[in-house]
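Appendix C reproduces, verbatim, an entry submitted by the partner laboratory led by Prof. M.T., so that reviewers can inspect both the input and the predicted structure.
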Amino acid sequence: MTWHQTIVVGNLGGDPELRYLQSGQAVCNFSVAVTERWRDRQSNEQRERTTWYRVAAWGALGETCNTYLSRGRQVMVIGNVSARGYVNNNGEAAASLDMTAREVRFLGGRGDGDQGGGWQGGGQRGGQSGGQRGGGQQSQQRGDRASNYPDSPTTIDDIPF
């Protein structure tokens, strides 16, 4: 048995686009920018590199992403990534990182005030039936370090590091 999973945390580069296939299946496409920042040891300058992921969320997950996500919103996407090569408009070789989302967590950011929540594929979120979105209010009231992660342990002693 093999398993491939990638976790990406970043910000949406634009508003999501929802469409329906002829079969009636919903698919929501959006891009996520992941920016790494570091200080160059030799020049002592601040460096930055942004990697873009093209995400596809299917079915109810896609419909929920279209409803709650918008440009600049911070998300965590869990799914499978594939690389695709192509020739860009300038005739140069380029690559695209395409991701099929299995789970999307809404992390807040860009001043929207939401601290948590999310949606998992399969109609469940955090063990709750019915695919409820939420976590923001409850997480803020708990007041522990794990509160930014809705399904994480509720006490600091349960954190494995």
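Confidence is low (pLDDT under 50) at residues 111-120, 122-161. Additional entries are available on request from the coordinating office.
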